[in-house]
């Protein structure tokens, strides 16, 4: 199955109680269609006491089943907690986005998106130069305008 269609048939389930297991999720979501896989990510810290991180993923056989599960289960209650059910998003690589160990401007797509063209850079430098040469006093250059009427010749 292609990753894109697999992602469309996977739902994110958040706000899970620590007592929720993969069997619990299977029982809660099986009415909406054939379930292919259930994933409950483990805590990153090895000393954590919780069996999972408070969210999970349920992958259905068909994308229509996933949409049906989202429509019916989002904001419902499971083990006394209101759960969030939404379309799963693709996982970011470790060197992407917030929390990465790579500077934002060193990431692959950032420079292409935020780079300034040479023409824009030149125009900005010209505007700065023009602003530097502008008179600092707004009244400068207005000498002799204190007399009303036409200028005598």
Oligomeric nature of the chains: single chain
Strand order of the largest sheet: 2-3-1-6
> Residue share in helices?
25-40%
- By secondary-structure content and strand pairing, the structural class works out as alpha+beta
Distinct helical segment count: 5
At CATH level 2, the architecture of the domain at 2-87 is 2-Layer Sandwich
What name does CATH use for the topology of the domain at 2-87?
Alpha-Beta Plaits
The residue-averaged pLDDT reads 81
Q: Please report which band the strand proportion falls in: under 5%, 5-15%, 15-25%, 25-35%, 35-45% or over 45%.
A: 15-25%
Can you tell me the overall shape?
Answer: elongated
For the record, what CATH class of the domain at 2-87 applies?
Answer: Alpha Beta
Could you characterize the architecture of this molecule?
By secondary structure, this protein is an alpha+beta fold. It has a domain at 2-87: RRM (RNA recognition motif) domain (Alpha-Beta Plaits), CATH 3.30.70.330. It contains 5 helices and 6 strands; from the N terminus they run αβαββαβββαα. The strands form 2 sheets. A 4-stranded antiparallel sheet has the order 2-3-1-6. β4 (77-78) and β5 (81-82) form a beta hairpin. The longest helix is centred in the last third of the chain and has 16 residues, at 118-133. It is elongated. The termini are far apart.
């Amino acid at each position: 199955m292609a990753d894109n269609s697999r992602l469309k048939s996977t739902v994110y389930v958040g706000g899970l109680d620590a007592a929720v297991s993969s069997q619990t999720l299977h029982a809660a979501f099986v009415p909406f269609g054939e379930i292919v896989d259930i994933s409950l990510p483990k805590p990153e810290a090895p000393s954590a006491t919780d069996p999972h991180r408070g969210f999970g993923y349920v992958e259905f056989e068909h994308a229509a089943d996933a949409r049906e599960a989202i429509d019916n289960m989002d904001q419902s209650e499971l083990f006394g907690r209101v759960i969030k059910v939404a379309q799963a998003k693709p996982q970011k690589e470790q060197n992407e986005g917030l929390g990465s160990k790579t500077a934002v401007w060193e990431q692959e797509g950032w420079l292409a998106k935020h780079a300034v063209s040479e023409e824009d850079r030149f125009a900005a430098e010209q505007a700065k130069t023009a602003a530097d040469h502008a008179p600092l006093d707004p009244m400068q250059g207005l000498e002799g305008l204190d007399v009303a009427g036409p200028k005598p010749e």
